[in-house]
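Hi,

Apologies if this is the wrong queue. I'm a grad student, and the batch job for EAL domain-containing protein from Lysinibacillus composti produced an output file that my downstream script rejects. I'm not sure whether the problem is my script or the file. Here is the sequence I used:
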Amino acid sequence: MESFLMENEGKVNILLVDDRPENLLALEAIIEREEYHLIKAQSGEEALKHLLKYDFAVILLDVQMPGMDGFSTAKIIKAREKTKNIPILFITANNMDSEHIFMGYSVGAIDYILKPFDPMILKSKVERFVEMYRLRQQLQAQTNALEEKNKVIEHMAFHDGLTGLPNRRMLNEQLVTNIHRAKAANKSLGILFIDLDRFKYVNDSLGHLMGDRILIEVSKRLSSIVREGDFVARAGGDEFIILLPNTDREGSLEVAENILHAFKAPFLINQYEFYITTSIGLAVFPYDGDDSNTIIKNADAALYRAKEQGKNKYKVFHTGMNIQSYRTFLMQNDLRKAIARNEFSLVYQPRVHIESGKVMSAEALLRWNHPEWGPVSPEEFIPIAEEMGLILEIDEWVLKSVCEQINRWKELGLPSMRIAINFSAQHFVQRNFIDQIQTILHDARIAPELIEIEITETAILGNEAIVSQTLTQIRQMGIMISLDDYGTGYSSLTYLKKFPFDTIKIDHSFIQDLASNENNSRVIVESIIWLARQLNMKVIAEGVERLDQLKLLTEFQCNEVQGYIYSKPLKPEDFIKFLSAYGEQRAAEQPKTNAAVEHTSKPKPDVEIGVNKDILKHAINQIKIENSLSNRELDVFRLIVDGLSNKEISEHLVISEHTVKNHITNILSKLNVSDRVHAIALVYETCIHQESIKN
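Support response: The file is valid. Your script probably expects a header line. Output copied below for reference.
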């Protein structure tokens, strides 16, 4: 049977039905062709059996047969779903009356062939039906192919191309659907927002191919951890979101703990072990938001809080959310737009050569002038930019801006001086870092000797080989290299020997204690300067603010100083004025600045970090008055803004958690907000408004 099927594979099946063998032989002789597979039946019953096995292009059916005649057979054929579209040619004597002919058409006949056969007509009609059959087959094949392609397209539209997990589009649909179901059934829905810790470093150091392999393995592990009915999606990059239907806060916490536990095991790729940790933000519908946008936003806010507190942990929305973390959460989105909006600027702090008293170089410092918040401290936004992977783009902007500024000063006739730039640790494991620097300097026509790159000890840790290679290439270009904040990290002598540093910068924390000699600062500073001199390295002291510090540094033969004793960081136009006023001043002489007096207080930084406490206090009091909060509600509200949980508020105010919940419910109702984050947002907006009035 199998050989019979293979022999006739690809041929067109034609069914010949006649009770007389000689008629079947005559039909076969007329229409037989190589591409036809002719199947013969001598009764209606036998024909129906063949129809169960084969697909036919056309049926030649004798009308007058003993037992089941042609009309009865045709009725059954047309009644079956599988065979109803097969064309039937009735074969009959030429003496049939019109009533019988009409009956044939009524039961599904396409045409009649009269006996005796006209070979040309019979052959032609069969060929036409075969052509129609083949055309239908082609159309069906095209339809099937289109359906398969549509399935592939639909799968691609709703699934991630790398991991095969549902993508954000399907996630959004599933989230809306699950929220509707949860509302209808009065059930809760858990949302876990997952982000891999420091995954940016994996891509930068090992390449995107290895990063993709890790993402695939992560997706498999997440899918294996969750329960049946849970929904895992890749939201983009190294972010994943899990929906937990019919799951309350405790159940969601259990899943989060299982994920953290599962990630303790390494990922095995190409015989290498990778230890990847993850941070998780958790929110639960309807308590943490009653629509898809709000619940995702709040889970994301909880995720940020988890990362802020050290990564490799989970955080529940509400827990620990305070005014500063809310500000930082908002800052992520605004940072992405800062370069395009031209919100960044550079200030320059001069570095004075002690022996000559001349300004030999300066350090470029980044500033962010936020359109609503005003100046934002680098200590606040730089860590966020590094975490988000934006620091590479920002540092590239800094280098280009410094080159442009050097050219502008040159056009004004000012003498060229070296400008120091701080680069993030991420650059030194970036593959195209050297090419990027060369391109920028070439395009700006800046000599490499006018650029100095500062690197901290922490940037070297764990990447000694690749950082050493990168720094060597930078030094070979002619760019100077400084080891920044020396003494605050490992203070490794191996680093001084192994890496091509030109300069060591002593951290300001040692300079602050220099005069009082607290913590043996004087011995440490003098030893660093002596050691650098033996290694043919120069020393720059940071944070010099008083004359007694300057005198000691002069005695220790420090090369250059930088700090408020000479100048705070200056805008480019103010830097020119400074050069004019102080360019020829000797370091041994008393600096002619406001900071030249002997004082013990540290100068106020030019940019304040975070939210101003006085403005925050006034904003909370204003909200109390406008919304008629009681004194006890005010106490609770202040602690909410500080980020305390219900339990912590209960312990702090010595009241029950039930009472705390009642106070919070009343506060949210009076403020006309739905949750803590919206309340904190209201406080923050009030702070911004008051600060704008103040300014």
